[in-house]
Amino acid sequence: MKQLPLLLLILIAFQAYSSAQEHVPELEDYQNFMKSKTLVLLEKNPMSDFNLVIRNIMENTWTITPYKFIDDAEFEAYRNNSDYSFLMITIASFDKDRTKARYKFLSLLMAERARSVGNMPDLCSLPLGYVGVEDDTYSYKLEAFLRFMQNHVKLMLEDPSLIGSDPFKFYNRKKKDELQSKTLYLVKDELAKEIDTEAEIRDIYPYDFKIVTREEVAQAIKDRREDVVFLHKVGPEHTRIRARVYKMLVGAGAPTIYYFDYEMAKKAADDAFQEKDLKKIR
Fold first, then answer.
1. How far apart are the C-alpha atoms of 136 and 151, rounded to whole Å?
2. Which H or E element spans position 30?
3. 59: Cβ contacts below 8 Å, ≥ 6 apart
């Protein structure tokens, strides 16, 4: 896997093992993306979950640009050629975090003539999981993430005023009311103990929800259920790393994010969707 620096969608500057400067995307970058061919960088391990599912997902989901799959050598050959964009898993750490936690992100980058990948425009990046946590915690959600990324690019082109700002503020603000008409899918082991039963959730959250299995989430994504929103939590999963816990509510069918937040985990119990998260979306 490439260990590359990137710029988060929420525009928090950080480094990933280098002193490269971040590159905030501009309108021209999104316009160039629409004219590009997207190169999907496969991981070195041919049996990785990403490699096993991404070909089928791209065929069924990716419509915004032509694409093809590449390996590391081809990435190095193409990364300075502005005719190309890249969809890839990147690994990052945050300078401001005291821990040595490393995170995997799904990143959509534009090629650019630059000394390092850290200078390439980052059109959209989403947290997938911690390094060291099994890929199956996120691989079944990739189809929904790719639908979101394509829709996000279109949104930036339709409203360039959002470029360079914090797009998640837009999603949090605009989408909260829409949750009331959706069914929220929650996996029990991703919930804090004080809200891991239907009765406890119902006391706080007055709208439709279900405590489901990961298989039910995967099926809702496959069926493109417009009425379903699922929780995507990124945490250390008992790897003893105390760092960021990301919480996202993503449309199973609708290509959007309804809620995004993160906090620094100080103890194992923090690695969960909390009561305070539930209160924010009611």
1. 24
2. helix 27-34
3. none
| Segment 155-214, tens digit of pLDDT | 999 999 999 777 778 888 877 788 999 999 999 999 999 999 999 999 999 999 999 999
CATH assignment, 27-158: 3.40.50
Contacts of 272 (CB under 8 A, 6+ apart): 190, 191, 192, 193, 233, 235, 245
C-alpha 129: how far from its chain's center? 9
- Closest-CA residue to 14 (of 76, 84, 101): 101
Span between the terminal Cα atoms of the chain, in Å: 39
CA distance 229 to 186: 9
Phi, psi for 171 (deg, rounded to 5): -65, -45
| Mean model confidence pLDDT for the chain | 87
CB 132 within 8 A of CB 239: yes
Q: Where in the chain is the domain with CATH 3.40.50?
A: 27-158
